Amino acid sequence: MLRDITIGQYYDTDSLIHRLDPRTKVVGTFLFIIGLFLVKSIFGLVAAALSLLIIIRITKIPLSFILRGQKAIAMLLLFTVVLNMFMVAGDVLVAIGPLHITFQGMYMAVFMAGRLVMLMIGCSLMTLTTTPLQLTDALERLLRPLKKIHVPVHDIAMMMSIALRFIPILMEETDKIMKAQSARGADFESGGLIQKAKSLIPVLVPLFISAFRRADELATAMEARCYRGDEGRTKMKELKYTVKDHVAKLIMTALAAGLFCTRYLPGVLSTIQAIGKILGRG
Amino acid sequence: MAAMNRNSIPDTINEQDMILARNLTYIYKDEADEEMKPEETAGKKKEGFFEKSEDNAGETAGGQSAETFKGQFQETSGKTNGETTALRGVNLSISKGEFVAVLGTNGSGKSTFARHINALHVPTEGVMLVEGMDTKEEANVWLIRQKAGMIFQNPDNQMVASIVEEDVAFGPENLGMEPEKIRMNVKEALEAVEMSAFRNATPSKLSGGQKQRIAIAGILAMRPECIILDEPTAMLDPRGRTEVVKTLQKLNQEEHMTVVYITHYMEEAVLADRVVVMDRGQVVMEGTPREIFFQVELMKQVGLDVPAMTELAWRLNRQGMNLDPAILTVEEMVNALCPSN
Description:
The structure holds two protein chains of two kinds.
Chain A: H1 22-38, H2 42-59, H3 63-68, H4 74-87, E1 92-96, E2 99-102, H5 103-129, H6 132-142, H7 153-183, H8 193-199, H9 201-224, H10 243-261, H11 265-281
Antiparallel strand pairs in A: 1-2
Helix pairs in contact in A: 1-5, 1-10, 2-5, 2-10, 4-5, 6-7, 7-9
Chain B: E1 17-29, H1 42-61, H2 66-77, E2 79-80, E3 83-95, E4 99-104, H3 110-117, E5 125-130, E6 133-134, H4 141-147, E7 148-151, H5 164-175, H6 179-192, H7 208-220, E8 226-230, H8 238-254, E9 258-262, H9 266-269, E10 274-279, E11 282-287, H10 289-293, H11 296-301, H12 308-318, H13 330-337
Parallel strand pairs in B: 4-9, 4-10, 7-8, 8-9
Antiparallel strand pairs in B: 1-3, 1-5, 2-3, 5-6, 10-11
Helix pairs in contact in B: 5-6, 5-7, 6-7, 7-8
């Protein structure tokens, strides 16, 4: 189940987007998310979905792979949809006892679900096309101004990249511990939610111990490889904006602006209709 | 040597000496039981367990209480009021281009010794010189770590980056090399360990042997003079072990890299130019593999095995055969048994 999460995974296809500067991708994703939240109409949502599909096509990552990665948010999605369906007041479509589904509710549910899915896909596109180390490099560079107010930007970035590096290792370990406990008669399947959570404690304790041990060993190994923070440290792959990056950023800004403008689309359409009517009458 | 001033740098430094330890002593304070140090996992624990139970068997049969056994055990590891003497008066010099294997049981101080070379530990008494630099001097630490790279037991716990190439670049980046130079070093290091094809791979998808070779490349990219390996094959399968050992042999022979190899696989120690046996924080034996393994009884006394073929020759000789006691490999055994071949 844990293996399905695609956030933090890297999918190498060496596409145009893979080769962009990671900062461009971070900024681009950010712009896309802003655009997504500015969208108010279903037109905008469709426009966003279409542009997302085009971007996915450019990355050459199979759509099915990306969709599989969204399984993790299925519960959240279901929750959003159900809540919106029943909670939004408006024209009643179906009524089941005290519950009623409204047209506005349905609209809202679809809208929110679409937004949520696209948000997740947008973020996973960023991590799928960028290695975690590049990503943290980008964040380090983008957040560099914060260093002036003594935010340990480099340390945070290093911690993030190490955390990402150890996700698969710790997952494998969790799996191993769970199997070892099951072999000794532990039961992780039955019981209610609380019972299930409780049965995870014997898994978490050894997992934490092992994680601390790994951290200790990694720290020693890093020290042995001359790591001493960011003073005097250089980079093999220095981040450099190229023309492509500037073009990509322009496109993403235009996309965000375009998505923002879609909220006026119904208004514009009705205005055009009105004008047309007036003209037709005249 | 005993007359030498304890804390001073020896005045006779041989130009050829890569690593020089004089009266190296290391005492550390610890509340927790250090017998199960985190770096001493899996394979080693098992070995220690068998060995302990074997020793113990005779004693308990003799009616000794567990208390006495514990006392003896503490004595072995040199523990007194929370202080453990991990190394006591180690004198050792390793010259450039040498392949030295360090053998010893759990708690013999071989890992502690390795950590001294890399300045991860500083001697409590005595001196440790790496290329003539004292590890006690703060200013030398980073240069020493660049000159003498260290590989640890668990391949997963020494990789920083999620991409092979970026992990190999980690060391040179820390040294502040020019990006162009880093790229060149990384490329050459990966070629040296024959892992160029996996440049963009994720470490978690590689085998143990491959991961350990990447770790070696990570050290090579820093352009060291010497590589210290602390049981690099303890967590690997036989195939991974061969991969790592072959890589090291190649580096030693072709690039004249000094290799300090800490292991408890006797078959791997056979490949070294020189074998150093440690016991209870001291160097007890030193010599070519043949000279060392030939002394089967002595090896067994310090709780170590000898290569399987040496042991076989020893046992056959005890049964009245007349074989060369210094046989190390299967081939030599075959030749000794069937001279016609």
